[in-house]
Amino acid sequence: MLLSGCDDKQLRVTNVSDRKFLFSIQAHNHWIKTCTFSPDTRLIASGSEDRTVKLWDFTSRELINSFQDHDAGINSVKFHPDGTCLASGSQDKSIKIWDIRSQRLIQHYDAHSAPVNEVDFHPNGRYLLSSSNDTTLKIWDLRQGHILYTLYGHEGSSTSAQFSPCGDYFTTGGGDSVVMVWKSNMDENEQEFIEDFGAKSAPNNDNAGGVPVPKRPTTAAKRQGTARSTKRGNASPQKS
Known about the structure:
Elements: E1 2-5, E2 10-15, E3 20-26, E4 32-37, E5 43-48, E6 53-57, E7 63-67, E8 74-79, E9 85-90, E10 95-99, E11 104-109, E12 116-121, E13 127-132, E14 136-141, E15 146-152, E16 158-163, E17 169-174, E18 179-183, E19 200-201, E20 210-212, E21 238-239
Antiparallel strand pairs: 1-2, 2-3, 4-5, 5-6, 6-7, 8-9, 9-10, 10-11, 11-20, 12-13, 13-14, 14-15, 15-19, 16-17, 17-18, 18-21
């Protein structure tokens, strides 16, 4: 199935196999910038310029909840691989993560110095990748609630970022019209490094640690990470 949202404020679902339009939902009060299915396709999440993230039941097409914690439009929404949480990246420069079972905000990150363009979960569910107009890419440890790496590769905004299905790689696109393929190394028991094939990595000095939501249980910790990289050989980021 194909899910789409656009400036007419509607979500549309189409069956790709027979090219048949199934249904639409009048979802938001402003144009929709991002939408996605949950891993089991029972739920739909959408984000809009109206500053809301909304959760929908696919079968009934009814609104389950509207999350209104962001202060600006939503650029990206993604489900956790186990389907229990939802992450969003916003023009307010922050990342937020909600538990969709309790429908509560459980983590907040003052993530970047410019709008967050995309967020994506690693397939193991323990890390989150983000891209921003501030040119950087960042990887977050969700269990500890702090930043692991700040990466530099694009000459201009980092517009997109996504892990491969197995998590061994991630791709990024930028305002410099370049696509980069990065090699990640996030073993089950090791979190020591990321190979960036020669792209620059610098210590993170901003105050971007995960902030626990007051009076809510969270694994986030007010902890400052340090960006690290391990370079292998003389290879450079693969561009296309």
